[in-house]
Structures are given as structure tokens and as C-alpha cells.
Design brief:
Shape: globular
Strand content: 5-15%
Largest sheet: 4 strands, antiparallel
Structural class: alpha+beta
Helix content: 55-70%
Number of strands: 4
Number of helices: 4
Order of helices and strands: HEEHHEEH
Radius of gyration: 17 Å
Oligomer: single chain
Number of domains: 1
């Protein structure tokens, strides 16, 4: 049941990500951008051929290989090590859902669809998958900190 629930959650995140990207390609691409919350966030259609902040742009083979290896390692950890740590479990579910969503884009199109633009930050446009990855990593860091506080090293 543990594996099944994890897979359902991951599939749901990937499905949400891909549905929003499909909408962005078919609807948002035609208009370019539109306000979501005026002066705060807009929907802006962008293809990103790299990773965060367009780093490694044009290096799709490397990005696909590195992402695949990372996702396999995270999946192994999730399915073998996280049975009793719910915070860490949800962290890795989010990272896997987001990572797979962006990996699908890279494999299918050679680029990732981004569409969220924070107007007060002039350096990044991102998507639902990126949010899942960032929130997941934040939860994982929190899980590690909490575990360290529960079981500090060197204290017996």
C-alpha cells in the first residue's frame, strides 16, 4: 500500500504539471503574458532550454542523464528508506513529481515550459514542477534538521 500511495501521489503531481503546461502551450503561448495578480505575478509563456535560471542551456543530453540519475536515487530512497518519516516521504514525493514533470518536457520537446513570472524578481520564470521541487527540498531540509534535533550526534 505504501508504494501504491506514493506512486498515485507522484502521478497526480505529474498530471497536474503536464495539464497546466498543455494549457500554457495552447492558450498562454498565443497571448504571451497576462496578469494573475496585478503588479505581483503574471502568467508569461517561456520555453527554457536549460535548468534553473537557464543554466546549462543547450545541454539537454546532460540534463536528461543527470535528472534521470538523480530521480532514480530519490525514488530508491523514497521506496526503501522513508516508511517511518512522513515529512521526508512527502518531500521526496514532491521532488519526484516535479522532476518527472520537467524530465518529460526535456525528453519530448528538448525544453521545459515555464509560465509563472514574479514581477518583483527580475531573474526567473518557473512552473508548477519547479515549485514542487523547491518545496520538496525545503521539506527535506526541515526533516533533516528535525531529525538532527531529535537524535544529535555525539550525545549518548
Amino acid at each position: 500500500m505504501f508504494v501504491f500511495l506514493n506512486l498515485v501521489c507522484i502521478a497526480a503531481l505529474v498530471g497536474i504539471d503536464q495539464a497546466i503546461k498543455l494549457w500554457a502551450v495552447h492558450s498562454l503561448q498565443q497571448v504571451g503574458s497576462m496578469p494573475l495578480i496585478p503588479h505581483v505575478i503574471e502568467l508569461r509563456f517561456v520555453y527554457n532550454e536549460g535548468m534553473s535560471f537557464s543554466l546549462l542551456s543547450g545541454k539537454q543530453g546532460f540534463l536528461i542523464a543527470a535528472t534521470s540519475i538523480g530521480l532514480l536515487a530519490i525514488a530508491w530512497w523514497l521506496f526503501t528508506r522513508c516508511r517511518n518519516d512522513q515529512l521526508q516521504r512527502w518531500a521526496w514525493i514532491l521532488v519526484l513529481g516535479g522532476g518527472i514533470g520537467n524530465l518529460i518536457d526535456r525528453i519530448a520537446e528538448g525544453r521545459v515550459v515555464d509560465y509563472l513570472n514574479l514581477l518583483f524578481m527580475d531573474f526567473a520564470i518557473f512552473n508548477f514542477a519547479d515549485i514542487c521541487i523547491c518545496v520538496g527540498m525545503g521539506l527535506w531540509i526541515l526533516a533533516v534538521i528535525l531529525e538532527e534535533r531529535r537524535h544529535p550526534k555525539g550525545k549518548e
